[in-house]
C-alpha cells in the first residue's frame, strides 16, 4: 500500500505516493532546480487517504495552499485565482483565468467556486 510523502528539494515540494521513502525520492524529478539540491522526503499522513486513488483532489490541494498547474497552459493556479475567474474543471484539473474564459465548451462540466 502506497503512502503519501512530502518530497522537497529545498525549493519545490510535492506529494508523491510510494511504498518507501527512497521510491518517493527517486520519483521526484524537478526540471527547474539545480541537481545539487538534496532531495528529502517525509511522511504526510493526512494525504494517505488518497493513495489508492493516486491523486489528491484539486480542491483539497488549493485549500491547503498548494498550487496546481492549469490543464490548459500549465500556469500555476492558487486558491485566490478561483475568485478571479479560474475554474476547477474536475477532481484532477483546474483552469486558470484565461483558459477558463476560452473553454466555453467545457463550461457545463465545470464547477465554479463562489467566494
Ligand atoms: Zn491556463
Provide a concise account of the structure shown.
This protein is an alpha+beta fold.
Outline the fold blueprint.
Layout: E1 3-8, E2 13-18, H1 21-27, E3 40-43, H2 58-63, E4 68-69, E5 76-77, H3 79-82, E6 87-88, E7 94-95, H4 97-102
Antiparallel strand pairs: 1-2, 1-3, 4-5, 6-7
The chain binds zinc ion (ZN).
Zinc ion (ZN) is lined by residues 70, 72-73, 75, 95-96, 98-99.
Describe this structure in words.
- It is built from four helices and seven strands, in the order ββαβαββαββα.
- The chain is an alpha+beta fold and 115 residues long.
- The protein has two domains: 48 residues, no CATH class; 52 residues, no CATH class.
- It has a three-stranded antiparallel β-sheet with strand order 2-1-3, with helices on one face. The chain has a two-stranded antiparallel sheet with strand order 4-5.
- It is elongated.
- The chain starts with a strand and ends in a 13-residue tail after the last helix.
- The structure holds zinc ion.
- The site of zinc ion (ZN) has 8 residues, from α4.
Amino acid at each position: 500500500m502506497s503512502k503519501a510523502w512530502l518530497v522537497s528539494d529545498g525549493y519545490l515540494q510535492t506529494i508523491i505516493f510510494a511504498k518507501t521513502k527512497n521510491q518517493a525520492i527517486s520519483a521526484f524529478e524537478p526540471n527547474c532546480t539545480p541537481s545539487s539540491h538534496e532531495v528529502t522526503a517525509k511522511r504526510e499522513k493526512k494525504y494517505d487517504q488518497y493513495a489508492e486513488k493516486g491523486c489528491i483532489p484539486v480542491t483539497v490541494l488549493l485549500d491547503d495552499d498548494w498550487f496546481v498547474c492549469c490543464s490548459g497552459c500549465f500556469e500555476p493556479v492558487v486558491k485566490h485565482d478561483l475568485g478571479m475567474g479560474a475554474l476547477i474543471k474536475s477532481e484532477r484539473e483546474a483552469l486558470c483565468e484565461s483558459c477558463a474564459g476560452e473553454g466555453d465548451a467545457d463550461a457545463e462540466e465545470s464547477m465554479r467556486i463562489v467566494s
